[in-house]
Amino acid sequence: MSGRRSRISEEEIKELISKLRFLLPETRRQGGSRALAAKLLQETCNYIESLHRDVDDLSDRLTELMATMDISSAQAEIVRSLLRS
C-alpha cells in the first residue's frame, strides 16, 4: 500500500450512511439529514456493542448447557457438530 488515504466522495458517504440507517432496526424510518449522521454512527456503535453482549450471553448459556449434557449423548454430539461448522 502506498500509505495514502483514499478519498471518499460526499455521495459515497451519503450512500454508506443510508446503508447503516437501513441496517439498524430503530433508524429505518428516520429521514436522511446530515445532522443525523453523527447520531447514526453513535447508534451503530451502541447496536454493535449490544450484539456483542448478546453473543457473550448466548455463549455462556451454551457453555452451561453443554456442561449439563452427557458427553456421549446424541444431543451433545449434534450441538458439537453445529459448532464446528
Describe this entry's structure for a reader.
By secondary structure, the chain is mainly alpha-helical. It has one domain (10-84). It is 68% helix and 0% strand. The chain contains three helices and no strands. The chain is elongated. The relative contact order is 0.07. The model has no long low-confidence stretch (mean pLDDT 79).
Question: What's the SSE blueprint?
Answer:
Blueprint: H1 10-23, H2 36-68, H3 74-84
Question: What's the short version?
Answer:
This protein has helices at residues 10-23, 36-68, 74-84. The chain is mostly helical. The chain has one domain (10-84).
Question: What would the keywords be for this entry?
Answer:
single chain, 85 residues, mainly alpha, 0% strand, protein dimerization activity, PRE, transcription, transcription regulation, (wild Malaysian banana) hypothetical protein
Helical segment count: 3
- The rounded Rg comes to 21 Å
Count the E strands: 0
Order of helices and strands: HHH
Which bin fits the share of residues in helices? 55-70%
Number of domains in the coordinates?
Answer: 1
Instruction: Give the helix/strand class.
Output: mainly alpha
Beta percentage is: under 5%
* Poorly predicted parts: none
Tell me, what's the shape?
elongated
**Biggest beta-sheet profile:** none
Distance between the termini: 34 Å
Mean pLDDT score: 79
